Amino acid sequence: MLTRTLSITRKEFLHIVRDPRTLAIMFLLPIMQLVLLGYAATSDVGHVIMAVLDWDQSSESRALIDAYRATDYFVPRYFPKNETELRELMDAGKVRVGLIIPAGYGRNLTRHGTAQVGFVIDGSDPSVANTAYAAAQSVGQSIALKLIEERMGGMAVRGPEVRTRVWYNPELKSSNFMIPGLIGMILQTLAILLTALALVREREKGTIEQLIVTPLRAPELIVGKIIPYVLVALFDLGEVLLIGTLWFKVPINGSILLLLELSLLFLLTCLGIGLMISSSAQTQQEAMFLTFFTLVPSIFLSGFFFPLDAMPAFLQAVSYVVPLRYFLIIVRSVIIKGVGIEALREPVLALCIFAPITLTLAILRVRKQTI
Predict the structure, then answer these.
(1) What does the pLDDT read at residue 248?
(2) Domain range enclosing 132
(3) Could you report the per-residue pLDDT of 193-243, keeping only the tens digit for each?
(4) What is the mean pLDDT of residues 336-361?
(5) What does the H/E/C string look like for the chain?
(6) Number of domains, the chain
(7) Digit-coded pLDDT (tens) for 314-335
(8) How far is CA 259 from each of CA 104, 237, 320, rounded to the nearest angstrom?
(9) How far from 16 is each of 97, 98, 204, 299, CA to CA, in Å?
(10) CATH number where 131 lies
(11) Rounded to 5 degrees, what are φ and ψ at 281?
């Protein structure tokens, strides 16, 4: 079994080496995408999920929370008991901002006309962070104006003083958000496109019949076909990380080994999708059309270009069946936030479900054609 699988792997490597167009796609496309999209513009968002840590529990603190809730920018959904829980929520990507109201906030606001609150922002997504930063200051100013109007004689009242801190990406650099996202997009594009052409190429050249009459079984054929593309995709991953670090100065705060392991899990999912396309298409042109038909919606519904929080509820629901959505959470959390596997349980579990399903369907499809 191993000998037959390695024979198919060797044969696929020879196809790659002898085809200059395939080589160009494999090694030049990632660089081109990185350069073109590395400086992509960001967009404004609304309805940002917020965590509120209220240590005051006063009518004034509740009024402040209601003021944030009344805007179109923030949705107070989580109420942690301490800063550790707040950080866990932000590490897991469940909240984008956190409001910290210290004890004595209401008393200071009543006696002195001013009080400080904390506002922490997840800076890994600059489009959300910039909006949240401006909106947080705006809410504080509006409350101050309201207090001035309520005080007799229009005495000088500053209201709550919002002190903002940005976590993970203090400079709010777009490249720190885009480059990790490009890793997921490039891996998906290459893995699906190249494997989608694998069986179709055999069919067009008339060699698929020769493979069918050999003792090869469907799993051996699939494994032999995907091994070269797994290695190429991992090489491209290293290529993008190297250029992103040296050229765009994107810091890698997490474990590279963990990133490689989870990237391999995502690759298996993409390779399964590519093989299903390859077994369904009759020509390479048809395979490429089906590939881009699959890639385009997944890119837009994964949070790569536009934050999912800003999308309609229907599209947010559809995004849950897009594997790229989960891998972008993983790659951005590992590179930007430096989190470990404990904060990535949900996206990792999703990929653990997607990978065997897509590969099993691909094997069944190929087996049906070879019987």
Answers:
(1) 79
(2) 48-167
(3) 888 887 777 677 666 655 555 666 666 767 777 788 788 888 888 888 888
(4) 91
(5) CHHHHHHHHHHHHHHHHCCHHHHHHHHHHHHHHHHHHCCCCCCCCCCEEEEEEECCCCHHHHHHHHHHHHCCCEEEEECCCCHHHHHHHHHCCCCCEEEEECCCHHHHHHHHCEEEEEEEEECCCHHHHHHHHHHHHHHHHHHHHHHHHHCHHHCCCCEEEEEEEEECCCCCCHHHHHHHHHHHHHHHHHHHHHHHCHHHHHHHHCCHHHHHCCCCCHHHHHHHHHHHHHHHHHHHHHHHHHHHHHCCCCCCCCCHHHHHHHHHHHHHHHHHHHHHHHHHCCCHHHHHHHHHHHHHHHHHCCCCCCCHHHCCHHHHHHHHHCHHHHHHHHHHHHHHHCCCHHHHHHHHHHHHHHHHHHHHHHHHHHHHHHC
(6) 2
(7) 888 888 999 999 999 999 999 9
(8) 44, 10, 21
(9) 47, 50, 16, 26
(10) 3.40.1710.10
(11) -80, 150
Identify whether residues 281 and 161 lie together within a single domain: no
- The first and second tokens of residue 295, run together, are 């890639």
Tell me the one-letter amino acid at 298: S
CA torsion angle for 130, 132, 137, 142 (degrees, to 10)? 130
Distances (CA, A) of 253 to 196, 245, 256, 324, 346: 34, 11, 9, 21, 21
* Count of residues in the chain: 371
Backbone angles phi, psi at 114, to 5 degrees: -150, 155
**Residue 260 tokens, joined:** 């490689």
Could you tell me if 146 and 258 lie in one domain?
Answer: no
Q: Which two tokens stand for residue 55?
A: 């240590």
